[in-house]
Design goal:
Shape: globular
Order of helices and strands: HHHHHHHHHHHHHHHH
Distance between the termini: 45 Å
Number of strands: 0
Helix content: over 70%
């Protein structure tokens, strides 16, 4: 029983889901709520509705992890023998878990959309689930396309709170444009950082999995063009990430003027230099695995961008 529970938690990537929870909580409590408090607004999304949105996002993310393991059961036996939980749990059970995740999340999203009077945006749920499924079964086997899809999804995790609060943001622009700019710029920079850093990590994983991907017919960027061009691409993405982090400082955005925020930005830039160096030096599968793990930690540290404001 305990072994099956451990396998289930591995299947749904519990640490990754906790990052999703932390991201949306930080966006709500450290970006939007202080801005609203400063002008006497109340959020459109109550704390109870916030947790419902978080559960919906968890359901979408978990469905993506589950179907990805279903799709990768064979290739993982080449790249990481014995690590995929699907064979141990049983394919039929995992398929049922996938269905429950998708249907449960959709029912909750239907309730939330109705309560918030946001039924026109209900299509976002099947779009998200469908894209993650399409990624697992087709897009991940194309050069760059799969990486970009996952990067965009990770950027949308904090963005969904902004979408739900767009009516309040519009009012905030009218009442306190400076505060509204601070909110939107903070959210934009973090979403851009999440997109680019996730793309970097996905590229590192593709290089790590090159052998298995090649044997199973996947046409990822490293498979088609080789490791060295993939390393060059990684340097370009790292450069774009560095520019994104420098924009607030170069353009002297007021919300990034504090010593603490700027220090954190420079710390992330220093970490990016280390990552770029590791990309350049990496040669073995273990090197790429360590780099992928390091990038996961780097993404986690990026949450500090949200925690450092106000």
């Amino acid at each position: 029983m305990i072994r099956h529970l451990v396998r289930f938690l591995k299947l749904i990537r519990l640490p990754n889901l906790l990052v999703v929870v932390a991201t949306q909580l930080l966006v709500y409590y450290r970006v939007f709520l202080p801005a609203y408090t400063s002008v006497g607004f109340t959020p459109k999304v109550s704390e109870w509705r916030l947790w419902q949105l978080i559960v919906i996002t968890i359901a979408i993310s978990a469905s993506g992890f589950i179907i990805n393991d279903l799709r990768d059961a064979k290739v993982d036996e080449i790249n990481r023998p014995g690590t995929n939980p699907v064979p141990a749990l049983g394919r039929d059970l995992v398929q049922w878990l996938y269905a429950l995740s998708v249907l449960g999340g959709f029912l909750l999203s239907l309730i939330v959309a109705f309560r918030l009077n946001e039924l026109p945006f209900l299509w976002l749920y099947p779009l998200s689930v469908g894209l993650l499924a399409l990624y697992s079964w087709f897009l991940k086997g194309l050069p760059l396309v799969g990486n970009i899809v996952i990067g965009l999804y990770c950027a949308c995790v904090p963005g969904i709170i902004g979408l739900a609060e767009r009516a309040r943001i519009y009012k905030l622009v009218q009442v306190a444009p400076g505060t509204a700019n601070k909110v939107m710029r903070t959210l934009f920079i973090f979403m851009l950082f999440a997109f680019l850093a996730t793309w970097l990590r996905e590229l590192a994983k593709d290089i790590e999995d090159r052998e298995g991907d090649q044997k199973t017919g996947l046409k990822t960027f490293p498979v088609l063009f080789g490791t060295r061009p993939a390393q060059v691409l990684a340097q370009l993405i790292a450069l774009a990430t560095a520019f994104a982090l420098l924009v607030p400082i170069l353009f002297r955005w007021p919300s990034y003027a504090s010593f603490y925020v700027q220090s954190y930005l420079y710390a992330l830039l220093a970490g990016l230099l280390v990552i770029s160096w590791l990309f350049y030096r990496a040669k073995t599968t273990q090197d790429w695995h360590n780099l992928s793990t390091g990038l996961k930690l780097y993404l986690l540290l990026g949450l500090g961008l949200l925690a450092s404001f106000w």
